[in-house]
Amino acid sequence: MNSPETQPIACLLGANEFEKRRRWIRELTSRHLRATERTPLSLHLSYAPKAAPQVRELVSKEQSCCAFLRFELNEQADAIHLVITAPERVRGAADALFAPFTREPASGPNVPSTS
Q: Does domain 4-101 match CATH 3.30.1360.40?
């Protein structure tokens, strides 16, 4: 299996599925996201504990369509912590990549694609 660093930089979702997924993520964010912390290539998210099933589903779905991102999930009694890390080669698009997972609007182009 290839590592995230060697995966093509592309979201495998079609336009309609991409928008549907963004809406689903926004709903999860608006209802359960407690805190975010950002570095240039990583996004640290903390969700309410009751969101654990949805956060696990989010990780599963995103790993299958955006294999170039790395997802680290840590479930604790008081919060669900998710770290999403992008490879160095997408530094310029990191804001747009991370925007759907935060309450902040996107400030760049859509998810980059090689197709």
A: yes
